[in-house]
Amino acid sequence: MIAANERDSFLPHLDPILRRYSDKQLAVATTWANHFCVPPEDQRRFIRQYLQATTPPAVWAIQFEYEGRSVAFARVGRILQWFDGTIVRTTACEGKYRVPRRKPELRAAQALAGRIETLPLYADGGLLTSFAQKARDWATELARSDLGERSALVAGLDTQSPHLRYLRPRSQYYLRLIGAALREFNSALDHEILFAIRSVQCVSPQLYNWLASGEKQRRLQALRAQPVLIPMLILGAHHDTFPWPHNDQGFIEPSWPELNGLLTEPRREELGRPGVGLLAEATDRGLPLNEVLAWLLQAPKASVRYLGSCRPGRPGGALFHIQRAGHEAWGRMLVGASLGNRRPRSKADWLALYSLMNSIPYSITMPHYRASDESVSIDWNVLLKGCPGSWSDPGWPEIEGTLADFQEFYRHLDHAAQYTGDVATRFFITRSYAQIARKVHQFHEYVDEVQKALDQEFGVEWDELQQTWSALLPMGTVQCPNGITVVELRCPADLMAEHTSMKHCIDTYDYSAFVGDCRLVSFRQGNAVLASAEIQLARHVDSSGRGRRQQFQCVQLRGPRNQPIAPTSAAGQASRWFMRGLESGRIQSSQEWPDQTSRLKRYAQSERAQRLSGAVQAWILENMGGQP
Questions:
Q1: In terms of CB atoms within 10 Å, which of 61, 117, 264, 384 comes out highest?
Q2: CA 412, CA 420: separation in Å to the nearest integer?
Q3: Are residues 588 and 531 in the same domain?
Q4: Residue 264's pLDDT is what?
Q5: Which of 532, 535, 553, 530 has the alpha carbon at shortest distance from 484?
Q6: Could you tell me if residue 197 is inside a domain?
Q7: Is residue 11 scored above 90 in pLDDT?
């Protein structure tokens, strides 16, 4: 804090702008100037910019009457949210709109409404609750923008950064302001619609706008009948992802003439806009909702009807699905609804199904990993033939592990072998779990033999087996509270020793570690190895499109002979504690995993790599190319 006598002597040197601020405000700004090491000659300019950006904060809301309507504004930084009495729209606070930085008086708000009303605004953005990732992203952006030209210093921070001392409390402060502003903004909205979207766990302006821009009672009735599918289609169906029903003969015409006018090419881009889409037309006309959805999604009517009986608390709401599976997330729910006696009934059942689906290799589910453009559709009833009938059965983790191991077929193929990869994919989508498990086991044994033969033919230099990749854990080991020790495996020799002890294929992951794709650790109790884990980094993108920090993920946790590790076991508990420690920064770690393969002779031997890839291709074509 600046003392009174010090401030009196300091004031003559301050510019007129800084004279308006209190001792406490100047002291806080000076603290951050020192924290970010602002040079003395730039400190006055930094302090002035910081105080102008934060006093007052550009977060406010106001509700008022305008031309006989109850309307509202909410400003959050550079975003202006406008409720015109019917729908919620957003725009950027550009200079031509003359949006005030502080909360305006009634006359100024009415003048702003007159300027905004004639301009085209977006109807697919905005925010209605601070309990959302977008609200956290907006709060973080406000905290960053307060630093002006030094905002880049607090972008993409890791958990060890000293700048979190600034970013975390400032973001929480802005998040509280956003929550208060949204409460005032929402008081002008239709409370019946607000209650409806909260009850289906989808507090989204897009869903609000859809319900408010047509036959409200019919749309509310449709939402109650399909509390997950309707929001999922409204939020996720853009003109390029909307589920247009096709078969081998082409487009499938609807059974309702009222919908034909919406199916022409020029109108498809309107499907995501409120009030004009196919679902809006079908609902407002009172067409049978389940039959329309069954035609639209090309799903059995019984499956659609079953999903209508599932409240969002069990399978998860639309926002949950879209966040984890993208804009076509309804496919996951339709799979569950098509499983007959295996249909998930409880929240635990649905989570078990999602966990199983997440174990399917990405090379099967992602089209760009295939040579052909043909769609891949897994027959889940065939795949799960012979599997447990209850989702609480303890055998599911082993099934998930085996299905995830199918990725090994693609890992050993080079980019020129996409046709062979397609053969493996066709095998997977047409076989039962028992057939897939048998091939995975045979393949592990075959690759192990090929690797040993190539090592004998080409030779392996001992110094390369001792060559280490960059570390995940600078200390090398971590002691868990339950007595388990986490030991990082740093070189091919470590992987070979782990393979000898555990009898699984971790010894083939040396290339993935050297190239920087993963890191590998061992969970041990004394001299006994309990489990091995593969850890990867996943980079997430926030709702503004800016990249956030990378996140650690444990993609595999296996015991002896690739057996799954129970979450309640000592190794399972240690793994959970360890991953949480990595994410929180409690455990010191490194995210710098450079590609080191160019320095190693064994990977520079293109003939060895080609021989391995060729052997794998030949095995796949011979063992997977025939009929079942």
A1: 61
A2: 11
A3: yes
A4: 55
A5: 530
A6: no
A7: no
Q: What per-residue string of b and e applies to 429-444 under the rule 16 or more CB within 10 Å gives b?
A: eebbbebbbebbeebb
Q: Predicted confidence band at 100 (pLDDT cuts at 50, 70, 90)?
A: very high
Quick one: CA torsion of 226, 232, 238, 240, rounded to 10 degrees?
-100
Tell me the CA distances in angstroms from 34 to 29, 31, 47, 118, one per residue in order.
9, 5, 10, 46
Report the pLDDT value the prediction gives residue 382, as an integer from 0 to 100.
93
CA–CA dist 59, 179 (Å, integer): 10
Do residue 317 and residue 393 come from a single domain?
no
Q: Which residues pair with 550 in a beta bridge?
A: 539
**In this structure, what token pair is assigned to residue 389?**
């009938």
As to burial, measured by CB atoms within 10 angstroms (0-12 exposed, 13-18 middle, 19+ buried), residue 200 is buried
- Is the pLDDT reported for residue 2 higher than 60? no
Closest C-alpha to 242, from 260, 207, 268, 261: 268
Please determine, for residue 269, whether its predicted confidence score (pLDDT) is greater than 50: no
If you count them, how many residues does the chain have? 628
- DSSP lists the bridge partners of residue 551 as 538
Question: The domain that contains 567 carries what CATH number?
Answer: 3.40.630
Beta carbons within 10 angstroms of residue 254's beta carbon: 19
Secondary structure of 139-202 in the HEC alphabet? HHHHHHHCCHHHHHHHCCCCCCCCCHHHHHHHHHHHHHHHHHHHHHHHCCCCHHHHHHHHHCCC
363 assigned to some structural domain: yes
CA 263 to chain CA centroid, nearest Å:
32
Assign residue 209 a region (left: φ > 0; alpha: ψ between -120 and 50; beta: otherwise). Answer: alpha
> In this predicted model, what pLDDT tens digit does every residue of 115-124 receive, in sequence order?
888 777 776 6
* Residue 183 resides in a domain: yes
- Give the model's pLDDT for residue 10: 46
Examine the fold and report which residue of 435, 460, 485 is the final residue of a domain before the chain moves on: 460
Residue 435: C-alpha distances to residues 377, 386, 402, 470 (Å): 18, 11, 11, 39
Candidates 518, 522, 510; CA nearest to 485 is 522
**DSSP tag of 75:** E
Structure token digits, residue 82:
């406008």
> Can you read off the two tokens belonging to residue 251?
């487009």
Per-residue pLDDT, averaged over 111-116, amounts to 90
Rounded distance, CA 615 to CA 447, Å? 9
Count structural domains, the chain.
5
Nearest Cα residue to 357 out of 300, 315, 296, 301: 315
Contact 526, 544 (CB under 8 A): no
Residue 486 has pLDDT above 70, yes or no: yes
Is the pTM value of this prediction over 0.90?
no
Predicted local confidence at residue 627, as pLDDT: 46
Q: Which residues pair with 90 in a beta bridge?
A: 81, 122
The three-class DSSP label of residue 81 is strand
Q: Tell me the pLDDT band of 242, cut-offs 50, 70 and 90.
A: low
Report the distance separating Cα 302 and Cα 308, nearest Å.
10
Neighbours of 12 (CB within 10 A): 7
CB contact set of 5 (below 8 Å; sequence gap of 6+): none
Average pLDDT over all residues of the chain:
84
Q: Is the pLDDT of residue 366 over 60?
A: yes
- Assigned token pair, 430: 């047409």
- Asked whether 97 and 50 are in contact (CB, 8 A), the reply is no
State which residues form the domain around 41.
Answer: 4-54
d(CA 489, CA 534): 10
